[in-house]
Design brief:
CATH architecture: Alpha-Beta Complex
Number of strands: 13
Shape: globular
Largest sheet: 7 strands, mixed
Low-confidence stretches: none
CATH topology: Spore Coat Polysaccharide Biosynthesis Protein SpsA, Chain A
CATH superfamily: Spore Coat Polysaccharide Biosynthesis Protein SpsA, Chain A
Strand order of the largest sheet: 5-4-1-6-11-8-12
């Protein structure tokens, strides 16, 4: 089974750390976040990984090499210019003939990738999006105003529960057929597939998930992993 991992971003929200260090190499505990992800994928039957690189690609290539340390085969596709979160997949459209994973390279999660792929194949979807419910506290008073401008409600500092994409997908090769040249992001790909009548499914993950793109989330990821590494790393 193959996974395509997006590892080319500049990680601007984690500056200055990512000025000279690619975000997928940021340590969580004593391991790079991407190494944790690769170990998880291997445990779920993934033996082929394509890393889509850009920013500081040579550091990623130097660390992960051909993947033999983890019992997987890693190859690389480099971006000469930023192509967004879906644009680089265009280069793989003729190479992928079976269902595959696509994911960001900065995820800390205990997602069951085997179950995600099983749901995808059983559901007959072009793409299955892994979904997590995230609670976001709004530190302001939120007003409800009707069409006439009258105030009809007031909620002080509410906590909103939102369904968000985890940045991990199961895809069929058909999803890549019409990706245009140039910059193109994953939300636009999903919207374009829906507009063409393609079926998009969701897989709700009830466990743990963070991307490490924000400083607060990176700190929390380190705390959670350090306290319970066995909750994320497959056991020998």
């Amino acid at each position: 089974m193959r996974a395509v991992i997006l590892a080319g971003g500049r990680g601007t929200r984690l500056r200055p750390f990512t000025t000279s260090f690619p975000k997928p190499l940021m340590p969580v505990g004593d391991l790079p976040i991407l190494e944790i992800l690769l170990r998880q994928l291997k445990a779920h039957g993934v033996d082929e990984v394509t890393l889509l690189t850009g920013h500081l690609a040579y550091l990623l290539e130097g660390y992960f090499e051909d993947g033999r340390r983890w019992g997987i085969n890693i190859d690389y596709v480099r971006e000469d210019q930023p192509l967004g979160t879906a644009g680089p997949l265009r280069q793989l459209a003729d190479q992928l003939t079976d269902d595959f994973f696509v994911m960001n390279g900065d995820l800390l999660t205990d997602l069951d990738f085997t179950a995600l792929m099983a749901q995808h194949r059983a559901g007959g979807a072009t793409v299955t999006v892994s979904v997590h419910t995230r609670a976001e506290k709004i530190d302001l008073g939120v007003l409800k105003i009707d069409a006439s401008g009258d105030l009809v409600g007031y909620e002080e500092k509410p906590t909103l529960k939102l369904d968000v994409s985890m940045g991990a997908y199961a895809m069929s090769p058909a999803a890549l057929a019409d990706i245009p040249a140039g910059p193109y992001d994953m939300p636009q790909l999903i919207l374009d597939l829906l507009a063409k009548g393609q079926r998009i499914r969701s897989w709700r993950h009830q466990g743990f998930w963070l991307d490490i793109g924000r400083v607060d989330d990176y700190s929390l990821a380190n705390k959670m992993f350090t306290e319970n590494p066995s909750g994320f790393l497959p056991q020998a």
